[in-house]
Each structure stands twice: as structure tokens, then as C-alpha cells.
Amino acid sequence: xxxxxxKQIVILSGKxxxxxxxxxxxxxxxxxxKVIVDCxxxxxxxxxxxKPKSEKSHEFSxxxxxxxNNEICIQCGLCETVCRFDAINDFKxxxxxxxxxxxxxxxxxxxxxxxxxxxxxNYFECELEDDSKFFYAKLFPGQGNSGKLVSEIKxxxxxxxxxxxxxSSNKKIASINNPDVNGxxxxxxxxxxxxxxxxxxxxxxxxxxxxxxxxTLSGVHDLKRLVELLNTFKIRMGIIINKxxxxxxxxxxxxxxxxxxxxxxxxxxxxxxxFVKALIEGKNIVEVDESVKKDLLKxxxxxxxxxxx
Length: 309
Ligand code: SF4
Ligand code: SF4
Prior knowledge:
Blueprint: E1 7-12, H1 20-29, E2 34-38, H2 46-50, E3 54-68, H3 78-82, E4 88-89, E5 92-93, H4 103-107, E6 113-127, E7 133-139, H5 146-163, H6 167-177, E8 186-190, H7 197-203, E9 208-213, H8 217-232, E10 236-242, H9 248-260, E11 265-269, H10 273-281, H11 285-288, H12 290-308
Helix pairs in contact: 5-7, 8-9
The structure holds iron/sulfur cluster (2 copies).
One iron/sulfur cluster (SF4) binds at residues 66, 83, 85, 87-88, 93, 98-104.
């Protein structure tokens, strides 16, 4: 159980382009009592669909960066020799290469190198039309600490739940307005693509993971890696096959893998051009196609039956 009775659901796919964010935004729209987090800090796009009515920007301290004061430097070359990341050349530091290890700062005999915190990006605390909170972030180019930023926005999302003492009375009013709602409190996390450090940060404390895959060989490969990762962290999961009719024999391979690993198949969504259209127009798919909305609502209700039981 996550904070204050909120179940944390993370939606993942091994790579981009599987429809993960579209599906996450749709699921989020079915619930009233929720906090949404877009953890794709390198290429956030969920805010384009959710269209927050307000947002507050916060700076993200991305770690420390070194800088040489050339008025003090005696050009001994020691810093260049010790830098394992080849970030120093001609007594200048390339900030795109600097990993912030601080070694140069410690060895400089003239104390000519400063080592100070740098701003690595921004994260945004937003409010949606239905008054729920939504968090997303943008890491500056060349910054390598996306995992830390993912942890930061998740922490802010959880803190927002704890701080919002008026929440339950507000939600009672909101739930009357959404006939699709069938109870529950959720932190809905749209995970980053891949299986690297940001994904590890996004699944921390998750109650359940939804794996969105597509029937391609790379889709199967990525899915298997994610299943292994989630099993390592003992996180329960279910699978959605998007564009399920693209290749029926590969879709069967996915279903076989799900059966073998005892993972429930939450649903299949046939290829639908409305997904792309909604993405281009910056709309939630549930506003665009009523039959897709019905299918996704069915899948979400099935998912909830696994989350709650
Ligand atoms: S170690 Fe210090 S003094 Fe030597 S080259 Fe680097 S910055 Fe200059
Ligand atoms: S902080 Fe580390 S990575 Fe950055 S320039 Fe110094 S030695 Fe190289």
C-alpha cells in the first residue's frame, strides 16, 4: 500500500512509441482521486495531452559541476590527467562531458577549480481541470542524472498527497461529476522508456506495473527484460498488447510468455490511427474515440481488480 492509502501504478514499455503515454493519460482520466506523474524526464509529453490549468516550476539541482578559474590556474595539467571522463582540455572544462566526480577539484594544487551545485533541469507541479495534481519534469540536455530527477518528482507527488488535508472532501464533490469512476485512490506513474536507472527510480514503491507492449520482435525482447526487472523488485504486473493485430503470431508469443510467467493479460488493443491523431492534436484519446474509450475503461477496470486484490 502506498502513501495515505494511494495505490501506486507504474505504466512501462521497453521503448518509446508503444502508446504507453496515451494509455496512461486515458487511465488517469477514469479516476477522480489521483495524482499523475510523467517520469519521462528526457522527453516529457503527457502535459500536452492533459493541458494543466496551472503550473509551478521548481529548479532541480543536478549535482555539482567543476569550473576552472584561469586567473589562478598555473597550467600544470594535473586535472586533465586525472579526469576519467576526458572533460578537460586546454585548461577548460567541457560541461557536457563533466560527470561531477570532483576529482579535479580535489587534486588541483592551486585551488583553481570551483565545484558548485548546478541546475540540471526543472520540474513542474501542475493542477488539472478536475483539480487533481500532475507532475512532470524536463532535464536539461547533457545532464546524466535522470534517475535522480525521477525520484525527485515522485517524492514531490507523494508529498502533495500528504500535504493536501482538504483532499477527501474535495474528491467527494469531484466523484459526483465522473460517472466512469468506481472508487480507488491512485498515483498513476507514466514511466520512462527502457530499463535503465530512471526506470528503476520510477518503479520504486510501485504496487503494480502495467507493461504496454506491441507485437514486434523488439517489443517481445523489451518486454522480457522488463518482466525480469520487475520480478527482481517483486512488483506484480499485467500486460497490455497495443496494436495487437499488427502481427498475430508475435502477439501469440507475448501471450505465451505471459502464461509462462503467470502474468495476467489485461487487454489487447487493435491498431487504431486515432492514437496517432490524438497525439498530434495533443488530446486525450478518450476525448477522440468513444469505442477506444470503452475498451480502455474495460482494461482499466480489469487492471484495478488485480491491483485491489
Ligand atoms: S590542476 Fe589546477 S592548476 Fe593545474 S591545470 Fe588544472 S586547474 Fe590549473
Ligand atoms: S569533476 Fe570529475 S568529470 Fe568533471 S572535470 Fe573534474 S574530474 Fe572531470
